[in-house]
Each structure stands twice: as C-alpha cells, then as structure tokens.
C-alpha cells in the first residue's frame, strides 16, 4: 500500500475563537477562527476515537439527477483517487492502520464517519484533509463500477430490496431522490456529478461539524486541531437546503404479482412532527406492531421482518416496512401449512385493524417502555451512539436524547393506538408476490 508520506502536512495556523458547553452530551464545542466547528465528548472508548465529519448538503443539491442516481453517491469516496492514490490503495492503507471510514451521502447531508486508534488522531486529521481537499476523478474506476452495478441490479430482482424499491416508486412516483439504487439510469456521469457535489461540500466545511468522541486529552487534541483545521476550506456565504418536491400518493394500494417465491411487503407512512415525545411513542408503537404481527403469522409458514424509520427532510415522517417471506418447509412446526401471500396479507390487515381498535395491556406497555429505556441506557456507554446523536443534533436540529426516560414514561396507550391508526389509515402500499 501507499506510504504514509502521501498524506498532507500541517495547514495554515488558526486560533480557537470560542469554546462552549455542548448541553446534550455535556461535551465541548470549539469554533476556530476560520469558522470550522469541532464537537468533542470525552468518554471511555476502548482506545479508539470515533468521528463523523457531518456536512449539510446531499444529493438533493445535485442538478439534473436521474431517478435513483443519488443512492449511488455514498460509494463515491471508494472509487476516486485520494491524495494521488487509487481508491483501492487508499482503502488498503486505512485498513493497515486500523482506521475505519464510511461515507453516507443522504438527501440533505453528507457524513464521513468511522473510528481510528486513539494514537492515530493526528493521522486521522491528515486523512480527512486528503479526502476533502485532494481528490481526483478516476474515469476507468467509475466505468467499471457502473458496469458492475448494472449486473448487480439484474441479480437483485425479486429480493426484498428490489420489492421495497418498487413500492417506493409507487408511493412517490415522480420523486427522483429515492434512497433506493436504480441502475437503469446509471451512467459514467454519476462520477462527475458526485465529484461536483463533494467539491461543493469541500469549499464550505464550516457548514457542519467534525464530531469526535473518545478518550483523548483535551489539551493535546486542541493542539492537533489548531495545526490542521486551518487547511479545511470555509466560506462566509449563507447556506440553505434546496426545495425538494416530495408528494406521496394518498390512501391504500395493493399490487399482486407472480414471482419466484411467495412474499408479502407492506409499507406504511404518515407525516408526524418529530419531537422526542412522538419519536418515543412511535418506537413503542413499532414494538407493539411487531409483537402483534409475529403472533398473528405464527401458523402461516412465513417469517417476519419489520423495520421503521424517521425522516426529517423534506417532511418529518414516520414509516414502517413489513416483509413476510416463505420459511423453509423443513423448519415448519407440525401441522403448519404454508399460507399463500393473499392469506398472509389478510392476516396482516386483520392484525393492523385490531390494533387500532383493541386495548394494549398494561403489562405489555410497561414491558415495551422498560425495554426502550434499557436500550437507550445501554447505548449511553457506546461512543458511536453519541456520534450519531450529535449528528442528529447539529445536522437535523433534533435532540432525541435529553430527558428520554421521562418521555418514555409519558407514552400512553392512547398515543400508541393513535399512531398505529394513523399508519393504517395513511399512505399504505401492499405488494404480494405469488410463486409461479
């Protein structure tokens, strides 16, 4: 792999302009004279420093985007040349140094994150400078990538991912900024579009923050930062998120298709202000829903996957994705016959209807609340949890952490039932595949 000498040296000197307490995490906010912001929370971290370079600006800012193109941009950093070496060699270098780096380009933000050994903090700063200041488009690498992604797209037909991508297109038919990859429109131009996006982000590194969580002495860390953050490019321009036209279909639609395996997918989505109160109540609602559906399908010969998500932009929204897939018949309990997708779909509908009408036992509510509180409490000792929470706070403006125990305690059965009813009555797409 490439030697360490390919990394940049010190940047222009800057001064520490302001120091503030970060009230959510009880950490520190350091703003430097060039406008660059660092948020640091010191805590035990198993000899690693956890980081996220979180920037406002994602693929919604890319002009002339084709449907599904934005979802490919998270792969960009692994394909371009960084500080003169190929993406492949750069990845090998990171691996040899024990440094993990992931990139996630979303609709309205871009986050480069991971972790590194504590004694590699200075090296990590050099690497981030290389990523944001010394990149180059690798035309041959992107051509190979496009070819491979088109082959992968073909092989994904019939998978849960492909089915959910189809539902997504039905749910918002004219929305080009989907989170699902669609290789049909993919071309070598994706590399140039991603390069333009990252070039724009790299010119306004003060529109976001470098988040660090670990156990490095603050004085030592500040000294390193003073030596390097002056090399990040910043600007005095005002920033704003582009307007995104996101309109889901209304009501309930069902699609019946023939395919290779029996399956049922359902996506439900409802607009909801994402306060900490609503997020805790919606999380409990998802727990109630999963238990109810798991009990309902026990005799269908199918297995359940349930995922839920909270979107802040372009609209605050709560969504639930339910998938049933045919289990291996060798694992069926005695007397269980495979219910077809139509029957399984009816089972899900009945369970959803019941949840919006019947009471949830006090014992179940207490158990779900306790589980949620224990889950969050356990995460408090995880540095990655604090990185994610700080990203939410300073990119999306959301604090889902402060006072969470009281918010969970306040979740009522009525609130949970109202959320489940809203999901059942909101935008809902059903997708049933019957084996040929």
Radius of gyration: 24 Å
Q: How many β-strands, per DSSP? A: 14
Biggest β-sheet strands, sense, barrel: 7 strands, mixed
What is the rounded distance between the termini?
50 Å
| Approximate strand percentage | 15-25%
The level of helicity is 25-40%
Structural class by helix and strand composition:
alpha+beta
Note poorly predicted spans: none
Helix tally? 12
N-to-C SSE series?
A: EEEEEHEEHEHHHEHEEHEEHHHHHE
Going across the biggest sheet, name each strand in turn: 1-2-3-9-4-7-6
Shape: globular
Q: Residue-averaged pLDDT, rounded?
A: 91
Characterization of this structure:
The structure is a single chain. By secondary structure, the chain is of the alpha+beta class. 38% of the residues lie in helices and 23% in strands. The chain is built from twelve helices and 14 strands. Strands 1-2-3-9-4-7-6 form a seven-stranded mixed beta sheet, sandwiched between helices. A five-stranded mixed beta sheet has the order 10-14-11-13-12, sandwiched between helices. Strands 5-8 form a two-stranded antiparallel ribbon. Strand 2 and strand 3 (37-42) form a beta hairpin. Helix 7 (276-296) packs across helix 8, helix 7 crosses helix 9 and helix 7 packs across helix 12 (413-425). The longest helix is centred in the middle third of the chain and has 21 residues, at 276-296. It starts with 15 loop residues before the first strand and ends with a strand.
């Amino acid at each position: 792999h490439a030697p360490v000498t390919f990394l940049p040296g010190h940047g222009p000197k800057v001064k520490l302009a302001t120091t503030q307490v970060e009230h959510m995490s009880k950490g520190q906010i350091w703003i430097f004279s060039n406008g660059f912001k660092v948020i640091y929370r010191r805590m035990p971290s198993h000899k690693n420093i956890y980081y996220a370079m979180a920037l406002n600006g994602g693929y919604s800012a890319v002009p002339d985007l084709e449907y599904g193109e934005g979802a490919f941009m998270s792969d960009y950093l692994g394909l371009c040349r960084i500080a003169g070496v190929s993406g492949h060699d750069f990845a090998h270098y990171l691996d040899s140094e024990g440094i993990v780096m992931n990139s996630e380009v979303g609709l309205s933000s871009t986050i480069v994150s991971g972790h590194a050994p504590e004694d590699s903090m200075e090296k990590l700063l050099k690497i981030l400078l290389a990523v944001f200041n010394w990149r180059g488009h690798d035309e041959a690498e992107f051509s190979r990538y496009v070819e491979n992604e088109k082959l992968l797209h073909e092989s994904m037909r019939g998978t849960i991912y492909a089915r959910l991508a189809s539902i997504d297109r039905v749910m918002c038919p004219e929305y080009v900024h989907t989170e699902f990859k669609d290789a049909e429109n993919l071309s070598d131009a994706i590399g140039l579009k991603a390069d333009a996006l990252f070039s724009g982000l790299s010119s306004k590194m003060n529109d976001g923050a470098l988040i660090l969580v670990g156990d490095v002495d603050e004085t030592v860390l500040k000294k390193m930062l003073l030596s390097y953050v002056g090399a990040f490019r910043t600007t005095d321009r005002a920033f704003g998120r582009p307007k995104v036209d996101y309109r889901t279909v209304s009501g309930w639609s069902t699609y019946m298709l023939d395919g290779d395996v029996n399956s049922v997918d359902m996506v439900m989505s409802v607009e909801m202000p994402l306060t900490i109160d609503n997020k805790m109540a919606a999380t409990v609602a998802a727990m109630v829903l999963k238990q109810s559906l798991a009990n309902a399908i026990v005799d269908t010969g199918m297995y359940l996957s349930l995922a839920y998500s909270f979107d802040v932009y372009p609209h605050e929204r709560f969504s639930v994705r339910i998938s049933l897939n045919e289990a291996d018949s060798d694992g069926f309990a005695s007397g269980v016959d495979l219910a077809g997708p139509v029957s399984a779909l009816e089972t899900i509908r009945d369970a959803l209807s019941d949840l919006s009408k019947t009471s949830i036992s006090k014992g179940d509510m207490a158990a779900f609340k306790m589980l949620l509180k224990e889950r969050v409490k356990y995460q408090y000792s995880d540095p990655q949890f604090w990185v994610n929470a700080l990203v939410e706070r300073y990119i999306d403006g959301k604090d889902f952490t402060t006072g969470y125990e009281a918010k969970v305690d306040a979740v009522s059965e009525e609130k949970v039932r109202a959320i489940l009813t809203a999901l059942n009555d909101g935008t809902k797409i059903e997708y049933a595949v019957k084996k040929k």
